[in-house]
Design a protein that fits this description.
The protein is mainly beta. Helix content is 4%, strand content 49%.
């Protein structure tokens, strides 16, 4: 199982980035994919999730209305479109995958953890 994040970088406040999570080694259509982030000195935060089998989506309040999650099953890749970025969005962003199939809200709110994780991509938003 492999998850590889890409698309991070430096952007000015108000700008946009699209993160990609390229996956391999598992049945992508059967898995739930989540995006998480960890800022320096802070705990990891769940921000968005998509159930590839049922289309379930969930966003943390901190990103609702600014971030959009999607999956391309043919490419076994999940994306996170991030708009109206703010300095508080600066963090290392990780994607993760799980086969159990809990509702997305439960993963993002921290009730359940995901089994497989990427190594992360750094997003820096300057003011």
């Amino acid at each position: 199982v492999q998850l590889v994040e890409s698309g991070g970088g430096l952007v000015q406040a108000g700008g946009s980035l699209r993160l990609s999570c390229a996956t391999s080694g598992f049945r992508f259509n059967d898995y739930t994919i989540g995006w998480f982030r960890q800022a320096p000195g802070k705990e990891r935060e769940g921000i968005s999730c998509i159930g590839n089998s049922d289309g379930d989506r969930y966003y943390a309040d901190s990103v609702q209305g600014r971030f959009t999650i999607s999956s391309d099953n043919a490419k076994t890749t999940t994306y996170l479109q991030m708009d109206r970025l703010q300095p508080d969005d600066t963090a290392v962003y990780y994607c993760a995958a799980d086969a159990v199939g809990y509702v997305c809200a439960d993963y993002i709110e921290g009730y359940y953890d995901m089994d497989y994780w990427g190594k992360g991509t750094l997003v820096t938003v300057s003011s």
